[in-house]
Amino acid sequence: VQLQASGGGLVQAGGSLRLSCAASGGTFSILTMGWFRQGPGKYREFVAAISYNGVSTWYKDSVKGRFTISRDNAKNQVYLQMNSLNAEDTDVYYCAADKYGSSGIKSPVPYDYWGQGTQVTVSS
C-alpha cells in the first residue's frame, strides 16, 4: 500500500486546513487509517484515527472538537479537517494505515504503511 498525503500549508491562527491522504496498491476499505504529526526533535504523536468502515473515530484530546477525520472508501481517501488551528498544531503530518485494526492505534507501532508527510505551519 502506498500513501500520499497532501493539503498542508501555511495558515494563520484560527484558520482551517484539510489534509488528504490517497491510498493505492491495496484494499483500502479494510484498513484502519490514522493521522500522526511530528516536529523537530519530537516523537511522532497520534492525532486521529478512523476504523475501516468509518464507524469509529479516535482523537488526541487537544484536537477534539477542532479536527475531524473522515474517509471515502470509494475514492481510497482519508481526510483530516482541521479548524481553529493554533501555533501548537505546527508540525509535519503523516497518514498511516494499519492492516489488522490493532487495539493500540494511538501508537505509531501497529501501523504498517506511512505516507511521506505534509507540512502544516500555523502563524500566530
Write the layout of secondary structure elements.
Layout: E1 2-6, E2 9-12, E3 17-24, E4 32-38, E5 45-50, E6 57-59, E7 67-72, E8 77-82, E9 91-98, E10 113-114, E11 118-123
Parallel strand pairs: 2-11
Antiparallel strand pairs: 1-3, 3-8, 4-5, 4-9, 5-6, 7-8, 9-10, 9-11
Any overview of this molecule?
The mean pLDDT is 96. With 124 residues, this protein is mainly beta. Helix content is 0%, strand content 49%. The protein contains no helices and eleven strands. The relative contact order is 0.31. The strands form two sheets. Strands 2, 4, 5, 6, 9, 10 and 11 form a seven-stranded mixed β-sheet that branches. The protein is globular and about 40 Å long.
User: What is the ordering of alpha helices and beta strands?
Assistant: EEEEEEEEEEE
Question: Structural class of the helices, strands and pairings?
Answer: mainly beta
Distance between the termini: 37 Å
Largest sheet: 7 strands, mixed
Radius of gyration: 13 Å
Shape: globular
Q: Provide the helix percentage.
A: under 10%
**Number of helices, counting only DSSP H or I runs of 4 residues or more:** 0
Total strands: 11
Fraction in beta strands: over 45%
Low-confidence stretches: none
Average pLDDT for all residues: 96
